[in-house]
Structure formats: C-alpha cells, structure tokens
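Whiteboard transcription, Tuesday session. T.W. wrote the structure tokens on the left side:
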C-alpha cells in the first residue's frame, strides 16, 4: 500500500473504462481519498474482443494513475479483479475432509465448471459453515484459469506494478463487498446486485445465512447502443450519446441543431424496452432468480441494486423494477463514506467494484 496500512487502492479494469479508487480507514470510518475513471478507447470507438487491445489498456492505465498522482512502481499492494468466462464462483456442499483431501476434491469439482486441465486451474475457497449432523460443509469455490490470471498480472506489470503487489479477486465478490462491508445487512435479507457493464453484466445474490449465487449475463451497455445504432442508423459514438442523453425511453422530439436528437428515426418514437437486448437482459435476471428459488427455497428478495456505467441510463431502475416486480435502485457505494469537501461525485454506481476491492484494506 501507499506507506500506510490504512490506505488501499482498488483497480477495476473493464472493457470500456478503468476505475481507480483510493480509500483510507480511520478508526471505524472509511474515507474516499480520491478516484478517477479513464475511458480506454477514443470517443466513438468500442472494445473489440477479436483485437489485441493491450496498447490501449496500458495507455489508459498509465493515465489513470497519473490523474491520481499515484506511482504504480511504489505500490506495495493493490486490489484488482478478473471476471468473465474464465472465472467461476460457486457455493457447493461437500463432505467434511482434511485440508489436503478437500483441496484435491475441490480441484476435481473445479474442472466441472472450467473444462481445462488440472494444471491450468487456479482455485481458492472459503468454508462458509458446517452441518455436523450430516458431516458436510458449505464451501465457496472460486476458480479461474492460469492463462486469465497471468494475462491480468502481466498487464499490471507493463505499467510498473511489482509482481508481488496485486491481490487479484473476482468481480462478483468485489461487487458484493462494496455493499456488505459498508451496510448493516440483516441475516434474513436477500440482496440482488446487478452490475451492468459495457459488454456483460454480473448478477450476484447475497444472503448472509444462506446461498450465495453469481453468474455472468452476456448483455451490457454496448448492446443497448447497437440497438440504437440500427434503429437510428448512426455510428457508435452517436448511439452512446443518445443512450445517455435520451435515456431508456427516447422520445421523438427532434432538434435540428442537435447532432444527437436530429437523427432520423424509423418510427415516431422508440423504446429500448421493446428491443431484444432489453428483453433478454430481463429474461436472464428472471431465470437467475428462479434458479435461486429452486436451489434455496427463497424468493423473498429484498431489493435489486444497480451498479456499473449503464446503471446511470435514465429510467433503467424504474424499468427493471416494473419488469421484476421488485424494488430497484441505483447503488451509491459512497453514501456511508466521508468525502473530501471539495469533491463532487457523480459516477457512484460505476466505481462500486473498485470500492469493493479497496475495502479489503490489507486482508
């Protein structure tokens, strides 16, 4: 860390932007020292998984550290995370075993979730509880591939971060930490967190005394933008502007002097709620909630919290609440922190994952 064990840096590397958060703990209070969000690609361009984007990532990483005046070479520790198809997080029940036997058993289990060779798997686990009557334990199993882990670590080293500095977590656990480490969560509450990123969404269901569930959903903000591009016949940059300026329910009020609203619509008004992406996102969330009910017997979800850049789309919370019949709100992870008096914060949902990472404070 930055010469002070009470200070921590969280780094969230997405496919659209990089979020860097610096927190400080004083007694039982958490203070936001500073944060920055750096877009990876020039305006109007988007992430392409088929291309090597290393140059753009290294440039954006260097810029975000410069903005916060943090020298990455001097970091003793930094908290970051990986996610996507190369990561699996599952809560499983298994027989009580010795430590060596348990790790061997979990390595076999891990290959069911990531079909790669045993030598290519990196796993970690946490024992959540024990049922002594049945001789079984609940285990949270986290698995990734050595390739994904090494690629992430190598990217950090390109900007001078020491090989020993990164503590690499997984996206879904960082998101959950951003909530449960800042809020008093009742034992009976079941909280759903939906992080809507640029190219994918992460859904996590947290119940302190029950089942933890998380999964990736392959739809994100860029998919909404592509819907608008097709509907309005515009490029990616203008589609992004329409998405954020007009919201989830763009209207047909045309201003000929406005490059965004002067685009020609194919029908008098358009609603993203009618679009395939929107329907598929809702369907995937519903499917996840049904699965959770099937596995746990609980469907009394307390609330849905939205994070990620697309959580800021106007009316996104209201739309999802109407579709899911649950309270939905945009989550502000800074609500229970002390903020610098001269700092205005507008991207609260976008930095949730980075906040959750930094909240680990030297674990």
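and on the right, the sequence the group agreed on:
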């Amino acid at each position: 860390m930055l010469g002070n064990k009470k200070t921590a840096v969280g780094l969230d590397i997405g496919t659209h932007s990089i979020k860097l958060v610096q927190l400080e703990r004083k007694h039982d209070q958490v203070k936001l020292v500073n944060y920055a969000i750096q877009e990876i690609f020039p305006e109007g361009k988007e992430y392409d998984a088929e291309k090597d984007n290393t140059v753009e990532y290294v440039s954006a990483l260097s810029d975000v550290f410069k903005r916060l005046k943090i020298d990455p070479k001097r970091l003793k520790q930094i908290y970051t995370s990986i996610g996507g198809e190369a990561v699996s997080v599952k809560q499983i029940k298994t027989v009580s075993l010795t430590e060596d036997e348990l790790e061997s058993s979990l390595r076999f289990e891990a290959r069911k979730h990531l079909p790669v060779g045993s030598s290519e798997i990196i796993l970690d686990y946490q024992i959540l509880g024990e049922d002594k009557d049945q001789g079984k334990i609940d285990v949270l199993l986290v698995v990734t591939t050595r390739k994904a882990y090494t690629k992430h670590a190598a990217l950090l080293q390109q900007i001078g971060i020491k090989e020993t500095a990164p503590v690499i977590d997984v996206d879904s656990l960082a998101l959950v930490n951003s909530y449960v480490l800042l809020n008093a969560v009742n034992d009976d509450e079941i909280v759903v967190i939906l992080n809507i990123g640029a190219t994918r969404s992460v859904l996590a269901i947290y119940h302190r005394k029950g089942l933890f569930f998380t999964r990736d959903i392959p739809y994100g903000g860029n998919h909404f933008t592509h819907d608008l591009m097709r509907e309005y016949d515009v490029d990616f940059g203008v589609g992004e502007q329409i998405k954020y300026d007009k919201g989830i329910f763009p209207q047909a009020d045309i201003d000929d002097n406005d490059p965004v609203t002067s685009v020609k619509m194919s029908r008098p008004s358009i609603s993203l709620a009618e679009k395939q992406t929107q329907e598929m996102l809702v369907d995937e969330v519903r499917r996840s909630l049904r699965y959770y009910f099937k596995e746990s017997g609980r469907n009394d979800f307390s609330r849905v919290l939205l994070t990620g850049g697309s959580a800021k789309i106007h009316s996104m919370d209201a739309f999802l609440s109407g579709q899911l019949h649950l309270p939905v709100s945009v989550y502000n992870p800074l609500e229970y922190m002390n903020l610098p008096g001269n700092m205005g914060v507008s991207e609260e949902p976008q930095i949730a994952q980075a906040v959750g990472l930094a909240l680990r404070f030297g674990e």
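Someone added at the bottom: The longest helix spans residues 276-296.
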